[in-house]
Every structure is written in C-alpha cells, then in structure tokens.
User: What shape does this take?
Amino acid sequence: MNSVGFTRVPHFTRRRFLQLTGASAAAFVVAQALPRRAEAATWRLHDDTDQVGLRKLYSGSHNNPGCDSGETADCPGPGRISCYWGALYVNSVREHRLRTGPFSGCNADWPGDGSTDRVRWASHHSASGWQPEYRFSGKLYVYDILDRPDPWNGLVLHPVHMDNCNNYWIRLWERDNPSQVVWGREVDDSEDWITSATLPSPPQPGRWYEYRVDVLPGSRLKFYWNRELIFEDTDPKGTYSQGPVGMRLDYFDTILAETRVYQL
Assistant: This one.
C-alpha cells in the first residue's frame, strides 16, 4: 500500500500470464478426468394423496397367502407404495399424510383411526430405483397403541423389503422394552438379530418422531431417531444390499408424513 492508501498492482508479466493460464488448463483437465457422481434424487413416497382425496382409502389389502410385497395388495396405491395388509387412509391432502386403519374394501371411506392390529406397507419394486448409498426417512405420529399380545411387538422399519418373508427390519418401541432397538434380517420367513442398541429415552404416543436409515455399501446401516445416531453396523453375512422400503405398524395407530428415499 502506498502513502495515499492505494494498493500497488503487481507487474503482470508474460511469464506470469503463461503460469496462470497453464494452471487453469491443468485444473480443467483434472476436473474433466475425475468421475462425476450421479446427481442426487428424491423419491417422495406418498406425495400423491390428491389423486385419492381426503379421508379416502389410499391403499389396503386382506392378508393374502404367501410372502407379500407392495405389488400383492388388493387395492394398490396410486403411486410408489401399497399397503399389503390392513389399510392406509388419507389424513391430509395438503401435507400428504396417511393414517393407519382397518381394511374393508377398495371403495372404503374413512375409518383411518388406527383400530386394527395389522398394517404393513412397502414400496413397489418397479418404483424403488435407489441404490447404496440411499436414505429412508420420514416422520411418525403415534396416537395410541393397541394391546399387544407379545413382549417383542413393536414398530418396524424396513430399509430393505424384498417381501414380507425376506427383508431387513429395525424394530423399536417394543411392548416390554420400548427403548430397545434391534436390527435383524428375515430370510425365507425366518428372523435373526444382527445388532441391538438403546434409544436415549422411551418413545411416547402423542408426539412426532423423525427416523432415518442410511443404507450404505457392504450391507452397512446407520439408524437415526430424532436426528440422533442410534447405531451404525454391518451385516456380516451381507444378506441384502438394496431394495424396496416399508414398515410394519402392527397395533400402532400412526400417521405417516414426509416419507422419502434420497439417493446420497
């Protein structure tokens, strides 16, 4: 800076010009050579409630024989997901929210009051184009919980749901141990545990909760509850790598909101 407060501009020589332009060209070549990561995508799983209408059946089904999937529902949903046991009703068109309820037929109106002991849904295989790394996330509001016959009955998330007999499951909010979280695998209708963890506090009806499951390469999962990491672990058997997502909401009177899958 000179005596009157102006910064002196350095002399810009031909050599300096060639240095700068050469560095820029090299940087451009390196950037072009690096592989580009695929652009992130978002699948909003039930942002189509306006196609059904408020207090109308969104999707539902009787319990059909065999290993159910979203495609086997008696009354498919209008888009990416279907309820293959029990029913989901439109709780809000503006917010695209769904609520659990009993299934009585494809033209049923609102009994979306949670008064049923079985509600299970999954995304369709044809609509589940994500691959690791992807994130399954959303919000849940539990109004009430029906009487549960078994101590392990809880709310179940499926970060991979090939069908009702072959899947990864994350179970929490168990009847006798609501703070326990278990990640397990189901293969040919037979379940076993992979890992377990504990929530910071037992969940309670009457409030919103956020969940998030990151499905990573190598059959590795990260599970978050209310934005807090609960576990990060790997299936040593590498049973599943990707697939449709879903939930078992048996005995839970539940509202679903902002249910999405993100390609990371």
Q: What stands out?
A: The helical segments are 14-33. DSSP finds one helix and 15 strands in the chain. The chain has a mean pLDDT of 89. Residues 14-33 form the longest helix (20 residues).
